[in-house]
């Protein structure tokens, strides 16, 4: 045992033993009680969304009626009138991010077809819940192995991470509703079909989701520089690996929420791997430990 963390024993992650107390956590957290996203956070357009757009008020209205998962609603800046007010209201009620966007950007996305000030992006597949991911692991009779993406904005990176996760036997992947790319056609293409075989959950707050997983007995590891070597870390049992954004890495609040920070040893002159490459290395080691 090492020094206590939040009143509970904090394990030594350098000891790769089977009799560690990390599996003794008692589930207490209800995943429905998420910490609200802070007001004023940046929810601007990230990544390449030029494919998969639903354009125009009537088309977006029918999409909202269908009940399909929608990643974002882009609305032209300025005064809102007519049916667009209703569309925005419906989107907000469903928790869909509504992003005010300049007209030239909407023109470019629509290929200069009439967009009537609104464009929506429907997800390529239905999202599941975090509980669904845990249930998948339970059904397989395996300890959960979960990937959490904290602000991945490049669809090619997210697609590659999904492919890595599926190949390594992960039970699911978690992404954020805001400041991140959703399941777009480009993500599907980059995953090379793996998206059809991996459960993906979308949450409003990554930090609160990490806390909830911890309460469910899942140990969480943030992938960042300066941490314990992944090869010296005990990843056996229920665990989740958090991958950060391409530019900023894992956010400070999420790092502080995680149980530990893990790193990939570096021997060259460049100081970091691409996030999808790092995912492959980390998940391959986690899978090795889970199936050894």
Structure in words:
The protein is an alpha/beta fold and 292 residues long. Strand 8, helix 6 and strand 9 form a beta-alpha-beta unit. Helix 5 runs parallel beside helix 9.
Summarize this structure briefly:
This protein has helices at 57-66, 83-93, 103-109, 130-140, 155-167, 185-190, 206-215, 252-257, 275-291, and strands at 2-5, 8-10, 53-55, 70-76, 98-101, 118-122, 145-150, 172-176, 200-203, 219-229, 239-244, 260-263. By secondary structure, it is an alpha/beta fold.
Q: Which descriptors would you attach to this protein?
A:
31% helix, 292 residues, disordered N terminus, elongated, alpha/beta, four-stranded mixed beta sheet, 12 strands
Strand and helix map with partners:
Elements: E1 2-5, E2 8-10, E3 53-55, H1 57-66, E4 70-76, H2 83-93, E5 98-101, H3 103-109, E6 118-122, H4 130-140, E7 145-150, H5 155-167, E8 172-176, H6 185-190, E9 200-203, H7 206-215, E10 219-229, E11 239-244, H8 252-257, E12 260-263, H9 275-291
Secondary-structure-based class equals alpha/beta
Mean pLDDT: 84
The main sheet orders its strands as 9-8-7-11-10-12
Count of runs of 4 or more consecutive helical residues: 9
Helix content: 25-40%
């Amino acid at each position: 045992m090492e020094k206590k963390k939040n009143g509970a024993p904090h394990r030594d992650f350098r000891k790769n033993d089977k009799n560690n107390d990390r599996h003794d956590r008692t589930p207490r957290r209800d995943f429905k009680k998420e910490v609200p996203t802070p007001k004023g956070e940046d929810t601007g357009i990230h990544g390449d969304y030029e494919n998969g757009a639903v354009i125009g008020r009537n088309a977006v209205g029918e999409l909202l009626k269908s009940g399909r998962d929608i990643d974002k609603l882009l609305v032209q800046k300025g005064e809102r009138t007519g049916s667009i007010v209703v569309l925005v209201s419906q989107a907000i009620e469903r928790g869909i991010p509504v992003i005010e966007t300049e007209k030239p950007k909407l023109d470019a996305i629509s290929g200069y077809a009439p967009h009537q000030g609104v464009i929506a992006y429907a997800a390529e597949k239905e999202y599941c819940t975090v509980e669904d991911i845990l249930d998948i692991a339970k059904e397989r009779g395996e300890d959960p192995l979960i990937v959490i993406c904290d602000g991945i904005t490049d669809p090619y990176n997210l697609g590659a991470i999904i492919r890595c996760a599926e190949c390594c036997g992960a039970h699911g992947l978690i992404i954020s509703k805001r400041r991140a790319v959703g399941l777009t056609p480009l993500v599907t293409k980059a995953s090379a079909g793996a998206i059809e075989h991996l459960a993906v959950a979308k949450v409003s707050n990554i930090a609160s989701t990490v806390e909830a997983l911890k309460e469910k007995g899942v140990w969480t590891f943030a992938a960042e520089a300066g941490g314990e070597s992944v090869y010296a870390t005990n990843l056996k049992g229920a665990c989740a690996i958090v991958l950060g954004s391409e530019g900023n890495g894992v956010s400070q609040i999420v790092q502080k929420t995680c149980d530990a920070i893990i790193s990939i040893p570096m021997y060259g002159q460049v100081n970091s791997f691409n996030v999808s490459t790092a995912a492959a290395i980390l998940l391959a080691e986690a899978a090795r430990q889970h199936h050894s």
